[in-house]
Amino acid sequence: MGTIFMEMRQRGQMTLTPRLQQSVRLLQLSSLEFAQELQQALASNPFLEEIEDEQENESDGLHPAGPDIAVPASEESFPREEPVDDSIAPSSDTYGDNHPEATAARTREDGEADWTEWTEATPSLRDHLQGQLQLCSLSSRDRGLCQLLIEALDDDGYLRQSFDELAPLVHAEPPVEDVEWSAALKLVQSLEPAGIGARDLRECLLAQLPAPADCTPEQSLARRAIADHLQALARRDLVGLERWLEASAEQIRAVFQLIRRLDPHPGWRFGQPDTRYIVPDVIVRKVKGKWLTHINPAVLPRVGINRMYAELFQSNRTAAHAQLATQLQEARWLIRSSEQRFATILRVAESIVAIQRAYLEYGELAMKPLGLRHIAEELGLHESTVSRVTSNKYMATPRGLVEFRRFFSRELKTDTGGTCSATAIRALIKEMIGSEEQGLPLSDAQLAQLLGEQGVQVARRTVTKYRRQLQLPSVEVRRQALS
Q1: What CA–CA distance (Å, rounded) separates 222 from 258?
Q2: Quick one: 180 and 250 in the same domain?
Q3: Domain span at 468
Q4: Domain count of the fold of the chain
Q5: What separation in angstroms does the CA of 133 have from each of 188, 287, 296?
Q6: pTM, two decimal places
Q7: Which one, of 46, 49, 58, lies nearest residue 325 by Cα?
Q8: One domain, residues 351 and 453
Q9: Which of 204, 206, 367, 390 could join 423 in a cystine, given CB atoms 3.0 to 4.6 angstroms apart?
Q10: Cα(234)–Cα(241) distance, rounded to whole angstroms?
């Protein structure tokens, strides 16, 4: 009879509580994503409400200046809008009772409408093209093909799909032939703006130039350059273009000026793109010789617990209301996690400003090397927490809008035993390239040698990497541009 062995093992496993998971998730959101998160919570949780400016702050609310968040409340630091002078507001006496301005003024006073209701929406690219198509006399078959091609255009205005890929979307008898597709596409390409419906960049640019029979000599050269030497144009190969097009340097420069006026993305000028504006999380100012750091009041939401709903629930709480109890707890967690989020962001920002004060005073050349671990050890936080805080967060400084991550740069040794940051090295490289002599650009090896003469030993491949990060062209391209 076999022997049965039983073995017991003890294994430790750390799990995050739901509240901690929420705090971690909120911490890494950008200001826009955080605002969207709160709006979703307000829409789904009946215990949350927005606190109006005139309402008194309650203890269960996210205040503009919580106990751990030092936000200046003085009007000198953050001036508010001046009150509107009623004496200059438009009225029906000024415009007449039926004038749109008078109607807008009345609706603003009544609170029933907003001035944005009078704002005309920008038509989309497809609406703009469909409107032009309505003016064309076409058969229903041809009109359907043109409408399908318009719907297939991407945001740039290009037709990236082939006729074979679009054919299954058409149910017509007899089947659509290639000649019909080509005729429909030619009609779409004749619509405004020029370049719409192109299959590639070459076709887009050529469509924006006059027909060959109507071209000036300069336009003819541009057509030849785009049709046969597009890669040379992208490289700014002036010498090669002079030889291939049999043109002078003056003519080639004129061709470049002409092509720069063409639009490689004709679809971008229509519609309302999903623009994501950057809102700074922190504002840094120098006041009386001291750098002060504050949370931007614009990103501080005014959210609190709805007292009436909470009291009604507490007085009628039963086992059947378990879901409401969960929602009330989630509302409180959200407010506490939000307050902790801003408090942590402010602590990290203050530490960064204290270390990188020289950068704020003198610019990138004075940027000190800094790592996430340094901030984590100074504040007693985990390095992953600092990483989340610095992700998608921005600081408004006298030197412009700066991402938190930009203040962190790896450490490089110098010949004198000191250290400098990679950001300072990139600034030096940019300054050296910007001060090159006419016709004598510096190679990456020469840049590395010049940095070595200043006490910073950097390999040539590192210089190449930093130059590419600065989006600066190579020495060959700069030599052609300077010649």
Answers
A1: 7
A2: no
A3: 411-482
A4: 4
A5: 8, 61, 49
A6: 0.53
A7: 46
A8: no
A9: 367
A10: 11
